[in-house]
Write a structure and sequence with these properties.
Blueprint: H1 2-23, E1 44-53, E2 59-71, E3 76-87, E4 93-104, E5 109-121, E6 128-139, E7 144-155, E8 158-168, E9 173-181
Antiparallel strand pairs: 1-2, 2-3, 3-4, 4-5, 5-6, 6-7, 7-8, 8-9
Amino acid sequence: MISRLLPLLAVVVLIIALVVFSGGQRETAAVTTAPGPPHDPGYSARDARLVQTGADGAPMYTLDAVQIQQQPNRGIIDMQQVQLGFRDTSGNQWTANARHGELGQETGVVRLDGDVRVSGIVPGTQDAIEILSERLEFDTNAQIASTQDPVTILMSGRKLDATGMIASLKDRRVQLESTVHGTFLP
């Protein structure tokens, strides 16, 4: 009878040994998270030129900068020492310079700040004009330049100061918002 219980006893001892030895070696399940998309650092360049072309393939505007850096998380391109070149509806070339600029990647809006200077020829005349401000926003699609800051307009030796301006190059119209000082007689 002992010979019949011996194999059964051996199986029970084996099961107990497995439970005891495997219980001490339990590992906690590691929590793993699926990796997200890799961080996109964007691009950067020195002495760069960005050219936006229209449906006809002709340049709508150019942006030259000493340094540019794409900020993909913010949806902008950051620029240092910027020059914006564009043509009005009459074909006159305009240039805007500033210490700093931002281009909205999907908006076509260029924000300039730091000693902004815009120069060009007034459509329908041969008169050069210069617009000075600390900040200026230019919508390249609508061809509207605007600022809420103080602005100075210099044309034909005359000076006009105001706070806030909206200039539509398509409509050939400038609207000064407030505190206008100066005289512009023909």
